[in-house]
Each structure stands twice: as structure tokens, then as C-alpha cells.
Amino acid sequence: MTEQTLIEAARTSKAWPFQEAQRLLKRYPDGAKADGSPVLFETGYGPSGLPHIGTFQEVLRTTLVRRAFEAMIGAKPEDGKTRLVAFSDDMDGLRKVPDNVPNQDLLTANLHKPLSRVPNPFDTGHDSFAGHNNAQLRAFLDRFGFDYEFVAASERYNSGAFDDALKQVLRKNDAILDIMLPTLREERRQTYSPVLPVSPTSGKVLQVPLEVVDAEAGTIRFTDEDGSTVEQSALGGMSKLQWKVDWAMRWYALGVDYEMYGKDLTDSGVQSGKIVKALGGRKPEGLIYEMFLDENGEKISKSKGNGLTIEEWLTYGSEESLGFYIFPNPKSAKQLHVGVIPRAVDDYWQFRERLADQPLDKQLGNPVWHLARANGGFEGAEAPGAGDRLPVTYGLLLNLASVLGAEATESNLRDYLASYIGEGQITSELEVLIGTAVNYTRDYIVPTLDKRAPEANEAAALRALDDHLAKAPVDASAEDLQTEVYEIGKREEFGFDNLRDWFKALYQTLLGSDQGPRMGSFIALYGIANTRQLIAEALARA
User: Is pLDDT at 27 greater than 90 in this prediction?
Assistant: First the structure.
């Protein structure tokens, strides 16, 4: 496949990252800005809390669009045709003290100060609360190998890098008020100002009306907390813009071309789009994504604690499976809870195994194709890792671990796998899943297992299976074992309405769950003698 073939296929692909990138291509038909500067992608982060799975999904999805755009213009990551800025809004005032941080009194004493000027409650050596959280964000993004540039609002405000844009906000103060005031409640209108001065006495970000004294000089006048009238510069970190104005100013100052955001920010996006136009800029392209839901279908809330953290996902599944789960249709809400992880792991590997044999148009719709490129995995026009497969499914690993119960350890699972697939065949990816399978089984499967007694017809079928296993060679293949399991289930004497009832009986009586693996594969992995012991224990309950 030539690069030109990839370009042509990418420009007609229906996969959502390419559809998003098409909008950028319409913005820049030649694939580049008129001044030759890189096409700029941005993600935003509020450092009043630690980065979380929402931060991950936004950076990942934006990166997928970025890489799709590069494929459409025949560029590689190292060509510098695009940039991704991870922007931290650390000039925002600390509105409330998070419940999950130490030194609550210290933070309470510094409420409403810019996050970058709030003392660090953690013993980490950083000079501010935002400094600590910004470092956590960078470590978080680096952990997943994202290619990005970190930009802090505090550095841009304090250094004067935003001064020209701030002057433009002051020039357009009345136009911005015309946009914003109709969207506010009457009480809020009385105190609203696009520019929030920083008090020279308390250091707090003030929500007070102000007068623009001299836009060209950047001078403003307002009433301070103590009732005194203050005239000071709005430049050099002496002010902070209201959220929607700040967002628009950032688009204007940095020249942002693409930024996606959650459905909860739909109204903010509309107003900020109007404001950036008033400033003389252009609203970025970008999609509005749906929010994550918990297992009950309720919106995930950090304050409720009903979400799933990155650490929890990686305790029970792989990094690739997280990206795979997040990939499909960003405009549809997704349930995010521990129960979705096993299926995500196995589905990821199914798509990864198919990739090499798919025609190009199907490859471009395969999530693995996109995930392989997300962080610079790019070798010509081919997808790294194509055709890889796991020798066993994650579901089968979990079933094995659940049968072992309290004896399920990484060492035990590794020994069973080695005897099944051969010494030296356990890959690094499988090593990860051995550990996560032990964790998942211990925490979520073993506590729910309930092996029931078999019914009379089920017991008869189990005896027939046991008779076959007693005569089978110890190295019988999974396919041969599976065939015999099928044949027993079909025999009229055992009275199963369909094979599904037979397999459900196997799962419930031998494994203690309603669902399970291909029994032939399980017997081959667990061993014929061990499986006969499971059958004996089930028959003893009859």
C-alpha cells in the first residue's frame, strides 16, 4: 500500500476520527495554515483536582483526530504539521476545598485565590496546589505516551504572553457584555464582568463589576473587598477572565483549530464561539461528546464517587482495552464500571487479530488501527501490531482463576498456561492480563460464585461427560473436547431443549456462574483430571 493510497482512503473513510478530520481539511484545504504554522489541537484541564478518566478520554480522542488528519494530508507525527496543547486553567480561583486532599484548613484560608497561588497542601515540593496537580497531569499523560505540549494559564498570564489578547478583551468589553448578559439571571447580571481583577490586598480573584479605564494600556477600575476604589492594570497576572471569556480568549490568542468538549459544556461552547468572533478570531472545529454513566445509567460525578478511575481500570484490564472501550461513537453515552472491562479486553484482541487480513477501508474503521497510531506508532502506511493474537481469551483466564478461587495466583495461572500453550509462549501482553485476571477474580467473581446442584437430567449428562473424559487422552485437543461436549448436549436422553440449556448447566454447576467459556478450551486449559474433579464435586451435591 502506498502513502497516496492511504491518503485517498482516509479522505473517504466513515470512521469518526476521519469525519472530524474532514472538517479541518475543509478549514485548510491544502492541509496547512496560510502562515505555515502547525494546525493546533487543544485539550483543557482544570487543576482544582487530579486528572481522571475524563482527562484521558479527551486527550486520547483528540489525538485520534490529530493522527487521522495527519494521515489525510500525508504527514507523519515527526513532520511537525500539527501540535497538541494540554492547557491547564490554573489561574482559576479555588472555589471550594476538595474532600480528597490533606491540609483542608490551609486551602480554606486561600479560597478564591488563583490555583497557581494557593499553597501546596501536599508534601511534594511543588510551589502551589496547581503546581502539584499540573505535575500529576504531565505524569499522567506521559504514562500513556501522549505527544503534547503543556501550557499553563498562570505562565501565560503572569509573563504577559496573553497581554495583547487581554487588551482585545478590554476593547471588546461592551460587545462581550452584549453576548453574555442575556444568558444570565438578573442577580448575576449585577456583578458580572468579563474581566475578574485580582485584589491587590487579598490576592483573591474578585467577582465584581469593573470599568475599563484604558484598553490600550490595559487599565481597569473596580471596588475592592474593603470598599476602596482600585485602579490597576489587568495585565501581567493582575486579572483573570471569566470562564467562557477565558476559553474564547485562549482560542484567539493561541490560534486553536480543534477542541472537543463534553455535552455539559454545550452552552459554554456556543457563547465562547460568539465571543471569539467578537475578538476577531475563529471558533475551533470540534465535536461535543456524551458523558460517562455508571452501571445504573446515572451520570458519573466526582463528588458522588460513582465513577471508575484509571487506576481501577488498569487493576482489572489493560491500557489498550481502555482506549478500545472509549473509541466507539463519542456522541453516545457509555456506561463506565468494572463490569465492562473483561468484554473490552477480549473485543480489543478480536479486532487486533482481524486487522492484518482486512481490506484498507475496513482497517481504517478498526479501532486498533487508530490506537496503534495514537502515540506515534507509525511505520510507513502499515499498522504496527497487525495480526497479533492472544493464545487464550481473557474470559477463559477469568474462568480458570474463578475455579482456582482462593488459590488463584499469578504463578498458578502462569503454570496452567505454560502447560496449555507451551513454555516461552507467554507474551508481555498476556503477563499483564494474568495479573489483572487474578485481581478481577479475587474482587468481583469469587464473592459471587454459587455452584448449584445439578438436576437429574443434568447429572446424567455430567456422568456421560465424565465417562468420555476418563477415556480421553490427556493431550486431547480443545476442538475434540468441544465436539464431545456438543454431542452430549444433543442426546435426546438428557432432555435439553437446546444446547444453550446444557452449557448453562455446565457453567452453573461446575463454575458457579451463569456465563462461561468454550468448555473444550476450558477443559484443555484446566486439565482433564481437574475437570473430572469438578464434575465429581457437582455430582456429590446432586
Answer: yes
DSSP assigned state of 22:
H
Closest CA to 535 of 444, 441, 468: 468
* Rounded-to-10 torsion of CA 386, 82, 25, 277: 140
Q: Which of 247, 218, 248 is nearest to 234 (CA)?
A: 218
Q: Tell me the per-residue pLDDT of 37-88, one tens digit each, with 9 for 90 and over.
A: 999 999 999 888 778 888 999 999 999 999 999 999 999 999 999 999 999 9
What residue ranges of the chain are covered by domains with CATH 1.10.10? Answer: 456-541
Task: Give 346's contacts (C-beta < 8 A, 6+ positions apart).
Answer: 393, 394, 395
Residue pointed to by grid coordinates 502547525? 38
Element (H, E) at 323: helix 319-326
* 472 contacts 481 by C-beta, under 8 angstroms: yes
Helices and strands (DSSP H and E) totals, the chain: 24, 12
SS3 215: coil
Cα 32 to Cα 51: distance, rounded to the nearest angstrom? 32
Where do you find CATH 3.40.50.620 in the chain?
A: 3-184+239-289
Cite the beta strand spans of 314-372 per DSSP E: 334-335
CATH of domain 456-541: 1.10.10
CA 534-536-539 angle, 5° bins: 110
d(CA 385, CA 408): 30
Strands 239-241 and 195-197: antiparallel
From CA 390, how far away is CA 298, in angstroms rounded? 34
Sign of CA dihedral 487, 492, 494, 495: positive
What letter would DSSP give residue 447?
A: G
Would the pTM of this model clear 0.90, i.e. be above it? yes
H/E element, 243? helix 243-254
Q: Tell me the CATH number for domain 3-184+239-289.
A: 3.40.50.620
Q: Which of 307, 369, 373, 371 is nearest to 340 (CA)?
A: 307
Residue 226: Cβ within 10 Å count: 9
Q: Which amino acid is at 387?
A: G
CA 482 to chain centre: 38
Please identify which residue in the block is written with the cell numbers 480421553. 472
Which residues are CB-neighbours of 480 under 8 A, at least 6 positions away?
A: 472, 520
437-494 confidence digits (pLDDT tens): 999 999 999 999 999 999 999 999 999 999 999 999 999 999 999 999 999 999 999 9
